[in-house]
Amino acid sequence: MDYRTDLAMERTIHPGGIGEGVTVQTQSEGEAEITWVRIHTPTAAKRLGKAEGTYWTMTHPEMPYLTPEERIDVARQVAQTLRLMLPPKGTVLVLGLGNRRMTADALGDRVVSGILVTRHLQEYSAGALRSVCALSPGVLGVTGVETAEFALSLVERLKPSAVLVVDALAAMESDHIATTIQLTDTGIHPGSGVGNHRKEITQETLHVPVIAMGIPMVVYASTIVRDALKTIFATEKEDAEAHALADSLVSQTQQDLVVTPRNIDELLAGLADMLALAINCALQPSYSIEELTHLLH
Amino acid sequence: MDYRTDLAMERTIHPGGIGEGVTVQTQSEGEAEITWVRIHTPTAAKRLGKAEGTYWTMTHPEMPYLTPEERIDVARQVAQTLRLMLPPKGTVLVLGLGNRRMTADALGDRVVSGILVTRHLQEYSAGALRSVCALSPGVLGVTGVETAEFALSLVERLKPSAVLVVDALAAMESDHIATTIQLTDTGIHPGSGVGNHRKEITQETLHVPVIAMGIPMVVYASTIVRDALKTIFATEKEDAEAHALADSLVSQTQQDLVVTPRNIDELLAGLADMLALAINCALQPSYSIEELTHLLH
Amino acid sequence: MDYRTDLAMERTIHPGGIGEGVTVQTQSEGEAEITWVRIHTPTAAKRLGKAEGTYWTMTHPEMPYLTPEERIDVARQVAQTLRLMLPPKGTVLVLGLGNRRMTADALGDRVVSGILVTRHLQEYSAGALRSVCALSPGVLGVTGVETAEFALSLVERLKPSAVLVVDALAAMESDHIATTIQLTDTGIHPGSGVGNHRKEITQETLHVPVIAMGIPMVVYASTIVRDALKTIFATEKEDAEAHALADSLVSQTQQDLVVTPRNIDELLAGLADMLALAINCALQPSYSIEELTHLLH
Amino acid sequence: MDYRTDLAMERTIHPGGIGEGVTVQTQSEGEAEITWVRIHTPTAAKRLGKAEGTYWTMTHPEMPYLTPEERIDVARQVAQTLRLMLPPKGTVLVLGLGNRRMTADALGDRVVSGILVTRHLQEYSAGALRSVCALSPGVLGVTGVETAEFALSLVERLKPSAVLVVDALAAMESDHIATTIQLTDTGIHPGSGVGNHRKEITQETLHVPVIAMGIPMVVYASTIVRDALKTIFATEKEDAEAHALADSLVSQTQQDLVVTPRNIDELLAGLADMLALAINCALQPSYSIEELTHLLH
Fold first, then answer.
1. Whether this model's pTM surpasses 0.90
2. C270 touches chain A (CB under 8 A)
3. ipTM confidence
């Protein structure tokens, strides 16, 4: 059963999601819903198809259409969580994954272009600015270099205290497209995502903490069809049989298709700005979030 | 039953498609399949939800991945059909519909940017070049002007002998995305398309022949789900009941979502170049298609 | 003597600029300098190579690098002047001249993309929004249609009460690039500008008031060389002789070259946003400038 | 005397350019002129302000406007010279320097996007494809990482047999903009270039051969003014005095301005494609240049 979702939260709301080795906490704040998923054991990790660690998710049904004030609010909350996950000191290397020439896969690159980079200003800043650098590795088919290899090269030379990886995600439910932010301390694991451009990028491979941040921009067409079919079959058949039948009806063609909002190009810019703001806010506490907002324009 | 397809051909392959007032001719050429659909009567037009007139469709499963020679071949065939539909003389006004900032809706604008415009060179060309002009009207939400109004303004002043409208289409079947070209002498009718930006643009409204050309870039997510559901229900229920049930299960959210290839940005450029080449070839017979190919680069 | 400048203000600061038939008023506001030039007679118009009418110019040496508050301030002043020049009621048609694919010529198109268009919302807005539409005509070499012809087509059909034309300008002095805004009620006259894409677009040709707004993005290389040469020769020779000698030394090649800031792509976005804000502010007095600022992001 | 040119050839055509330690060979091929400059001694290197090594330059006055056949011809000649400079085997790492968001500085990034990358296909290609990877490091102000540091990180991990660096250059003479290709085995040295984004990237720093390739996209405005002035003064004064006087008249503002063709955006695409073709041709001898041409479209 390949669910092709990057959201740990989605796995927990499906049958068998929660259980031994998994803790889920949710809280509502206005229209926003925040979920902490913690996966404690290798068995639970295997059952959910997600690595052991912590996943923070914020879902807001109006996320692409927030007012400026609401956006600052969301960014501030993301920044707070990000600060909890990052070490308090040292250079942070931000990597924007994905293919900037494919709208559905361009989130990482766009976020990176909004990051306040400061590593080269350290001698002038007298400690007022945390050292940050930000790069877009591109994708294997365009560069000939695995993103994981790229990350390792830079980490070895720049010696950051942590790596923050930003990427466009894939969800299982279309309601989560462009409305959900996930932050996790587990890094990036291959096997889902929009562009399949991902060998493992984790603390194990890079030897520094790796935080991953993303927003789902697509659902695979196969997922949406399979899901619709399962709903039907479930009323008549055993669960496993329903799933197998649904899988058999998903055509090969649909594997390469994605479901996405018509106006994804437009949504992308706003969401990327919001994540860049959150990152800048988390990394530069000596600036107010309002000052940082102005830097993006 | 809202099928939301711009392809007349797709309507004829569904139950009840062919029948009185409709002629369908198909022919295969290698991997390509060409279909002529002619709708002769108002009743047939109503039944199929498509205007009376002629629709030419070419489907090639490898269309986005053709070799340069194969692309020239496809463009040449489109050009021949286009020449049949256009009046032999006079200025042709090419309009590239849609929103250039939304990849799935940008085909028209991209094609227009490849058109060999010559209207302003008439005094130098001594009759060697057919007069062509090409504009992108943009979309109502961005300009405040209906595309149909824009077209009428320009037609009244420029007095072209025909208008050629290029637009991104919506299909019912995902196999037709990026693989099918439709040419029709019926112009543009509201109600489908990617961006819903379309009041009627037809010979009735503009008083000159209006040819419409397009390639499906999306299937509405609602269509793909409905289709999957119908397949299932059809085995157990009456046709009408299956359809109604399928419709009831398509959620509102899915109405705004589209199914599209992950690499649509990449496909767009190649398809737009091919259509521009076909148009240039149809309109400038004094140049060879090879010479025209070089103009695009 | 072809000075190739669009700024009337620049003509008045050169020898013989002011004189009979020309009134010049300047005032300083902080670092900004505001100049009103009024050309009252055909003789003065001929002498300066600028049409009879009013030209308002604001120069701020830090214009591309203002704080958000300062930018709002500049936009507000531009809006006030614009409101003086525009009729109080009726649809305003905003035209963004130039070639969006040439950075130095893309200002008009970029400004248009930030305009709040409302003409299609009139029935819902109950008088709260002034009717505005905004289009980019493109350039003759790309469309086959003169900008002036395009403007006339739209004016005849949409019947606006005024036309506002936005365009990238050429200056004589490099200090004015990206630092000077000109507003004039004389419309657009051929013969200067970045892209040479301009037949006359004026009240005489369109039969409604035509306001032109722009910012210099380049100086012609020939201008800068000629200027440097004149300075030298002026110490040794008579004025006319110095000019003639300078002109003779400007090579043909240099005619096609422009002088521009290295980071023009970056400056463009900020300046276009500021002009769009000024226009939105002038046309929608029921919104505060702060509310309108948020619309751009 | 800061000439701010990246072209060694330009240094040799100025007074004192050729002399001890410098060999210059030129040959004409149709309209093209090819120059080999070899700098043999540290003294000559210091005199010319260029590193010891070999510089190959091809100038063609119509370079941006060649026919497809002529472009293939130029690319083939560049490829031949490039093959002489590169080691015959091993991975080649192509680095596209500069800022992709500044047109005048975007050549490197654009060329990289046309490179046939093959490093990740080595296991499938059975030796038919030479291993190539291609990356754009971005610029210090955007990434926080020096290009030289980036290069070193990747070289240490990927262990290429050579690095090929592509960058937009600055020339002294406006006739060389967009018409001249330079290839050199001396790598990149700080101090000129469009974006000043360059610490040394050479065999000394990377421990593998470093070939640099580029095309001038600008002349600094200060250069063009200084040049015009020198011509004048030279008729009346001693050489050194003329230079000093010219230098004193170049204003500070002009230091940040560049002279560039109005249509640089348009020229960029064609020139980048041509260089990418040349590189692909040099690195993949098992493909014909015609096959490689098709890969770019």
1. yes
2. yes
3. 0.91
